[in-house]
Amino acid sequence: LSAIEEVEPRIAAATRQELTDQRASLKLIASENYASLPVLATMGTWLSDKYAEGTVGHRFYAGCQNVDTVEAVAAEHARELFGAEYAYVQPHSGIDANLTAYWAILAHKVESPALAEFGAKGVADLTEADWETLRRRFGEQRLLGMSLDAGGHLTHGFRPNVSGKMFHQRSYGTDPETQLLDYDVIRAQAREFRPLILVAGYSAYPRRVNFAKMRDIADEVGAVLMVDMAHFAGLVAGKVFTGEEDPVPYADVVTTTTHKSLRGPRGGMVLATGEYAPSVDRGCPLVLGGPLSNVMAAKAVALAEARTAEFQTYAQAVADNAQALAEGLLRRGVDLVTGGTDNHLVLMDVRSFGLTGRQAESALLESGIVTNRNAVPNDPNGAWYTTGVRLGTPALTSRGFTASDMDAVADMIAGVLGSTTPTTTSKGEPSKAKYDLTDDARDGSLAEAQRL
Ligand code: PLP
Predict the structure, then answer these.
(1) Which is deepest, 115, 123, 226, 372, by most CB within 10 Å?
(2) Residue to probe by mutation, ligand 1, list 89, 92, 99, 257, most atoms within 8 Å of CB
(3) 320 in catalytic set
(4) Is 424 a catalytic residue?
């Protein structure tokens, strides 16, 4: 930090403060973690300075021999860890991984057949009229993914996102009674809509998914099954999700981030069957430019860590801690979407406290508990104020928290929410943003967060 200090002291100060904040508060954001020192150190090297567009052994720049090693090692670890036929480690983020996957699927399923039909050897042979036809065909394709308010991600066809604009999209939700996925309903929707791509995976669904059932639905309607395991990749890597809960044997294409439960650097990855490998390998030029060589190196280090027995113990503890947190909250009368969890996250419904998700998130933050507000299915408060707060255990588990610690955390959360009341607006209506939190509850929680 002293080297940074000399150039831009404000950045050194913010970096130092972030360390203090992350240590002094309880990080319950389900998509965050603490990467190891080897992972962090690998990101901060001169590998960052190297351009390496292309793929291993096939680059558009000279001097890529070391980046070739880095990328090959990272891909090898990814293939072996997840039992995948092919791994692509270049995407800079989860969104990049999903875009790469979508365009690779379009290249394989739409562009390649069109090239054969047009009698072209490659895209360079296409006439303007061929391009027009091809563009129209890309725009005709359909995507079926999980809706945002049921726990899906923006990139699964949410209209304001590019995925909702490049595809005709529809979404599946969860059962209004149980709040669980209903595979019969998804099957009926798929039969009617006949998507090119069926997307499974979530950001805020507190349950496991049966990927054998999703595969069966995809097969019935001739769809490509794509699974976005960004949130639960660590539970797959750590062998907590096995059999029908492991997406890799069932999906054509699997995407992930590397920084959530997988505990690596910020980044993305695409795994695929051999059939899709040549198309995914074209991530650059499809949607990517030069890969972040330093981050690919850090992915290799994190994947090597994830192949250890210690990581399996960690992943099991993430799930056990989520269970303990959910049980602790339920015992204290907090409502949970689906009534509990069997993965790494818990989604609280805070309406019984008379609060919006935003008020609950802010009151918890003031009390040393960092969370994020989140929509619940059919959320009456919409995506900004929300009715839910999402909690996740990957980060605290990295700090060594146990089930009894999670019970203490549940006690703090219930105590803070029970001591928070919405303030009223000048018209006498309850505000969706402002709230009162008792000093005792806040101070008690802050002290407990420091202790833990
Ligand atoms: N996919 C899922 C399921 C996610 O939850 C997220 C992140 O929240 C992403 C993709 C996007 O990841 P990133 O923020 O790295 O682009």
Answers:
(1) 226
(2) 257
(3) no
(4) no
